[in-house]
Write a structure and sequence with these properties.
By secondary structure, this protein is mainly alpha-helical. The chain is built from 2 helices and no strands. The protein has one domain (2-58). Helix content is 78%, strand content 0%. The longest helix is centred in the middle third of the chain and has 35 residues, at 20-54. It is rod-shaped, with a radius of gyration of 23 Å. The protein starts with a helix and ends in a 5-residue tail after the last helix.
């Protein structure tokens, strides 16, 4: 309950800190960042696989 009161003060501009709206945006951006990092890792793995498949020296 103490946290809710403190967060209410931040949201109202009475206390310094990150507002609830900003916290939600940060959460969303972190999730997007995590998803994009996973996508990049998958694409890197696929690229190295296909490069190996197309390399005539590997046959």
């Amino acid at each position: 309950m103490r946290r809710w009161v403190a967060q209410g003060g931040v949201d109202a501009g009475e206390r310094p800190g990150v507002t609830s709206v900003e916290l939600e945006e940060i959460k969303k951006l972190r999730a997007d960042n995590r998803r994009l990092r996973q996508d990049v890792a998958i694409l890197k793995a696929a690229t190295s696989f296909f490069v190996g498949e197309l390399d005539p020296r590997s046959r």
